[in-house]
Write a structure and sequence with these properties.
The chain is mainly alpha-helical and 142 residues long. The chain is 39% helix and 8% strand. It contains five helices and two strands, in the order ααααββα. It has helices at residues 2-21, 34-44, 46-49, 83-91, 128-139, and strands at residues 114-119, 122-127. The protein has a two-stranded antiparallel sheet. Strand 1 (114-119) and strand 2 form a beta hairpin. The radius of gyration is 20 Å and the shape is globular. The termini are far apart.
C-alpha cells in the first residue's frame, strides 16, 4: 500500500514538474528576435520616439519632457546597454502612478507570457514583447 501511495505521489510530482516547464497553449518557447522587438516598437513607440528612436516622433512636440533619444542609451551609460534600467522604465514602476510620467506603463496581460532574459547576470522572467524590445533597442545603439 505504501509503495502504491509513494508511486502515485512520485508520478504526480514528476507530472507537475513537466507541466510547469511547458508553455501554455498558444504560446511558443522561442525567444523573441530583433524583428519582434522592431514590430512592437513600430506599434507602440514610434509616435513619441520616432521611427529612428531619436525622440522625434509626431507626438513628441506636445510632450514635456521630450521623449528620450533611445539610440544613445549605451553612450550615456559608459558604452554598456542599460538593460535593467530600460526594462524597469518601460515595464512601469509599480510605486509610481502612470499619471506621474509621460510614457505609458507596459505590463498587465503581458506578464502572462514570460521568457528568461539575462539582466545583470541573472535570468529574469520578462514579458515576451519587452524582451524583444530590449533586443531591438540594444541593436539601434549608436
Amino acid at each position: 500500500m505504501q509503495k502504491t501511495i509513494l508511486a502515485i505521489f512520485t508520478f504526480g510530482a514528476a507530472l507537475s514538474v513537466l507541466v510547469s516547464c511547458a508553455a501554455p497553449p498558444g504560446q511558443n518557447q522561442v525567444m523573441p528576435t530583433r524583428a519582434d522587438g522592431g514590430a512592437f516598437f513600430a506599434a507602440n513607440c514610434v509616435a513619441c520616439h520616432g521611427a529612428d528612436g531619436k525622440g522625434r516622433g509626431t507626438a513628441a512636440t506636445a510632450l514635456a519632457p521630450a521623449p528620450t533619444d533611445l539610440t544613445t542609451l549605451s553612450a550615456r551609460n559608459d558604452g554598456v546597454f542599460p538593460a535593467a534600467r530600460a526594462l524597469s522604465y518601460i515595464y512601469g514602476d509599480p510605486e509610481t502612478s502612470h499619471l506621474a510620467r509621460v510614457m505609458p506603463q507596459f505590463g498587465g496581460a503581458m506578464a502572462e507570457d514570460l521568457v528568461p532574459v539575462e539582466i545583470d547576470g541573472v535570468l529574469t522572467p520578462t514579458p515576451r514583447e519587452l524582451a524583444g524590445l530590449l533586443v531591438y533597442l540594444e541593436s539601434i545603439q549608436e
